[in-house]
Amino acid sequence: MITFDEKIPSGDSLTLNSFVLKDSICGYFVESQSIIILPPIEAQQPPVAFINAPALLGKCHNLILESSSYAFGSLKYQWEHVNDGEHDYSLEIAYLLGNLSDTTSSVTMRTILIEPGKYLFKLTITDL
């Protein structure tokens, strides 16, 4: 027997006995069956990562990368400066991003770190 105070973890199986539960529409008894408890629909969606940043940046402006990511639970953030051989790369920027806390959802890079060019950044999020 299950009470309202009990929580059933997702993935568990429940067996419904015949002639115990009625459906809410027609009032017929539910046949005996086993069901698997699924997680809430929101929890089944993978987290989605978005980075907001300007397409162009003036030479006197700081670069602000901001996450507008979302998921069902709390998020952990991992920022990276990608060295793919096609885009400009800075060890200073890579060091800055690599040493951020995993709770940092926005980062400001001072103009002194940024040389003219094209940079590639990556944001990986984890739903807790």
Q: Explain this structure to me?
A:
The chain is mostly beta strands. It has two domains: 1-38, no CATH class; 51-127. The chain contains two helices and seven strands; from the N terminus they run E-E-H-E-E-E-H-E-E. The protein has helices at residues 41-44, 91-98; strands at residues 13-16, 33-36, 51-52, 63-67, 75-81, 106-109, 121-127. The strands form three sheets. Strands 3-4-6 form a three-stranded antiparallel β-sheet, covered by helices on one side. Strands 1-2 form a two-stranded antiparallel sheet. The protein is rod-shaped. The relative contact order is 0.20.
Described by the principal axes of the CA atoms, the overall outline is rod-shaped
Counting DSSP H or I runs of 4 or more residues, the number of helices is 2
The fraction of residues in strands falls at 25-35%
- Counting structural domains, the number is 2
Mean pLDDT: 85
H-E order: EEHEEEHEE
The CA-CA distance between the termini, in Å, is 31 Å
Radius of gyration: 25 Å
Low-confidence stretches: none
Largest sheet descriptor:
3 strands, antiparallel
